[in-house]
Amino acid sequence: MTTPVATGIASRAIDAVVELLADAGILATRDAGAVYPQPTAVLVGLPTLLRRGLASATFSIPVTVISGDPLNTELAVDRVYALADAAAAAIATDQYRPTSWQGGVNAEPLPAVELAAIVTLTTIGGLLS
After folding, report:
1. Per residue, what are the HEC states of 38-58?
2. What is the DSSP letter of 82?
3. Is domain 3-128 in CATH 3.30.2000, yes or no?
4. Mean pLDDT value of segment 112-123
């Protein structure tokens, strides 16, 4: 897939992760203000630039699986970790960690699982691929 450079490279990296998740059947958003986990939600965060080459940039992008329910039942734990496993497979990572997430309309932190997607974009003839 090729996109003109006019699209910000960081935004293009986020879009690439959202597309990977969508291809795996996982609905994800990049809009933290729109996240309403009922019972779960997947949020793609802002990228960290890991390295830049002459014609490439590599980012680490957080993918957070958020539970709208407290993780005090087996069903809630299984649901959030099943989605984390599916997201890990979609973004080709073998690690995740429990965390919490606070944002959107939620006043209290919600239980979550955080993963990191590594994305490398290259430029070829002024285009990102």
Report:
1. CCEEEEECCCEEEEECCCEEE
2. H
3. yes
4. 94
How many residues are given for the chain?
129
Task: Give the C-alpha separation, 89 to 105, whole Å.
Answer: 29
Please tell me which of 33-42, 102-111, 112-121 the model is most confident about, judged by mean pLDDT. 112-121
User: How high is the pLDDT of residue 103?
Assistant: 79
Q: Which residues 6+ apart lie within 8 Å of 43 measured at CB?
A: 28, 29, 30, 32, 35, 63, 64, 66, 101
Alpha-carbon distance 8 to 121, whole Å?
Answer: 11
Write down the H helix ranges in the chain: 9-23, 74-90
Residue for token digits 């590594």?
Answer: 118
Return the percentage of the chain with pLDDT > 90, whole number: 72
User: Torsion angle, CA of 10/12/14/17, rounded to 10 degrees?
Assistant: -140
Contact 4, 127 (CB under 8 A): yes
- CA-to-CA distance for 98 and 16, rounded, in angstroms? 24
Position 3 scores a pLDDT of 43
